[in-house]
Write a structure and sequence with these properties.
The complex is a heterodimer of chains A (about 180) and B (about 180).
Chain A (H helix, E strand, L loop, with lengths): L12 E2 L2 E9 L5 H11 L3 H10 L2 E9 L4 E9 L2 H9 L2 H10 L13 H7 L6 E4 L6 H18 L4 H4 L6 H7 L2
Antiparallel strand pairs in A: 1-2, 2-4, 3-4
Chain B lengths: L10 E2 L2 E9 L5 H13 L1 H10 L2 E9 L4 E9 L2 H9 L2 H10 L13 H8 L5 E4 L6 H18 L4 H4 L6 H8 L1
Antiparallel strand pairs in B: 1-2, 2-4, 3-4
């Protein structure tokens, strides 16, 4: 049964995450321009910062295929489609989308009221989707990683082994023993 | 250690993206769609992902009216090991049941399977992750620590126990 939080065109979901997959035709003559734009954005600290700011986008990729005549945007995100698109529009990810999609057929602008519908109209929901950790959201993964870091710091501290012997801390002591 | 030719797939931190496109054998799309639906609900698929322990996520998309099959995944480590791992788990069976409906697919255990996948792979131009450094196993480990910590915090005696100076980093997080 489709999740009522989501337009089914936004994609298949597993646990907290949804697979969004969008395809578009590249405007004739702009294939190389688009390839360069996408490649130049790889490793951009701005994109990393925007992903941190959004906090709901697990990962995304841009792929040119069919001799660069077509482009795919493939992402996995938490929560509702409307929130996802609003977050795009308010961060540098929105600028990246506009910068790339201005070279494809039928694009408007991420801030245009028609943007959401244009993206959904060109989306193809996955027919299969799996994850090794489907339940946690991006923010929950970040929290868990921060906690793990603190736990490692504790384990490196003299006296930690003894402190963890307190009965109330048994679940952590058991993990430390691994 | 065996060396391999350069494999397609953009890397970020520990993870690599893998994107493959193949042509569905004419007349097979309905069966293929059915197979993929069955795999979603089959606990065997999730068990195999747990067993592999290097596959962050994977999706299958039928595009061009079902004429083509797209696979997008992100994984840790070496691509050749990734494909070898498929061949030794239930994912290999899932793959054969799926890609068996795509033209030219030789079978996960065929000696030519890696060449076939590379010939059908398309490297992304851009790949970004919210937590690129940890491997799947490191994420699992972090989630286990989080679960243990939550269990600790549910114990009324935990607040006092965490006051030990050696546990300060955890006490700080508990206070957040």
């Amino acid at each position: 049964m489709p999740d009522p939080r989501l337009d089914p065109r936004a994609g298949l979901h597993v646990g907290s995450r949804t697979a969004f997959t969008f395809f578009a035709n590249v405007l004739s003559g702009y294939e190389q321009t688009l390839r360069d734009l996408i490649a130049n954005a790889q490793g951009s600290p701005k994109a990393d910062e925007a992903v941190k700011e959004i906090g709901t986008l697990h990962e995304f990729r841009w792929v040119l295929f069919d001799n660069d005549r077509r482009i795919m945007f493939c992402s996995s995100f938490d929560g509702s489609w409307d929130k996802y698109i609003q977050d795009f529009a308010s961060t540098v990810i929105g600028l990246m989308i506009d910068r790339n999609l201005q070279h494809v057929e039928g694009w408007v602008s991420i801030k245009d009221p028609r943007a959401s519908e244009r993206l959904l109209a060109h989306a193809v929901p996955a027919v299969g989707y799996n994850s090794a950790y489907p339940q946690p959201t991006v923010k929950q993964v970040w929290q868990a990683l921060a906690l793990q870091q603190a736990f490692h710091q504790v384990l490196d501290t003299p006296g930690a082994a003894e402190a963890l012997q307190q009965p109330a801390l048994k679940p952590l002591a058991d993990l430390a023993a691994y | 250690m065996a060396t391999h030719p350069k494999r397609l797939g953009l890397k970020m931190g520990s993870r690599t993206e893998f994107t493959v496109l193949g042509d569905v054998i004419p007349g097979h799309v309905d069966v293929l769609r059915q197979v993929l639906r069955e795999h979603i609900d089959n606990p065997r698929t999730q068990e195999a992902i747990d067993e592999i322990g290097t596959l962050h996520e994977a999706r299958f998309v039928l595009l061009d009216g079902g004429k083509r099959l797209l696979f997008c995944s992100s994984f840790d480590g070496d691509w050749d090991t990734y494909i070898d791992d498929f061949a030794t788990t239930a994912i290999g069976q899932d793959f054969d049941e799926t890609w068996g409906h795509v033209q030219g697919y030789p079978g996960i255990k065929a000696p030519t399977v890696k060449d076939w996948f590379q010939a059908h792979a398309v490297e992304a131009g851009n790949f970004v992750c919210a937590y690129p450094k940890p491997t799947v196993k490191q994420v699992w480990r972090a989630l286990a620590v989080q679960q243990a910590f939550e269990q600790v915090l549910d114990n009324p005696a935990a607040a006092e126990a965490l006051q030990h100076p050696a546990l300060k980093p955890l006490a700080d997080l508990a206070a957040d």
